[in-house]
Amino acid sequence: MPNPKRRHSKRRTSTRRAHDGLNIPQMAECPNCHQKIRAHRACPNCGKYKGREVIEVVEA
Ligand SMILES: [Zn+2]
User: Fold this and answer.
1) In the prediction, which pLDDT does 54 show?
2) Ligand 1 centroid – CA 24 distance (Å)
3) Backbone angles phi and psi of 22, in degrees to 5
4) Burial class (CB in 10 A: 0-12, 13-18, 19+), 52
5) Ligand 1 centroid to 22 CA: how many Å?
6) Is the distance from CB of 31 to CB of 25 less than 8 angstroms?
7) CA–CA separation, 44 vs 35, rounded Å?
8) Is 46 helix (H, G, I), strand (E, B) or coil?
9) What pTM does this model have?
10) Residue 21 Cα, ligand 1 centroid: separation in angstroms?
């Protein structure tokens, strides 16, 4: 089995992991109820996507 000859420095490890953070999802405004929603997804508040109702909204 191939094994690393030398251990990587702490800097090399942390430099690689600098891109590992989570990012905030893109938010867009619903044209129907003006709530902040995920872009390219049906609105969870009013159930509409591109002007027509695509999902049933169940009141809790
Ligand atoms: Zn909506």
Assistant:
1) 77
2) 20
3) -75, 150
4) exposed
5) 26
6) no
7) 10
8) coil
9) 0.50
10) 30
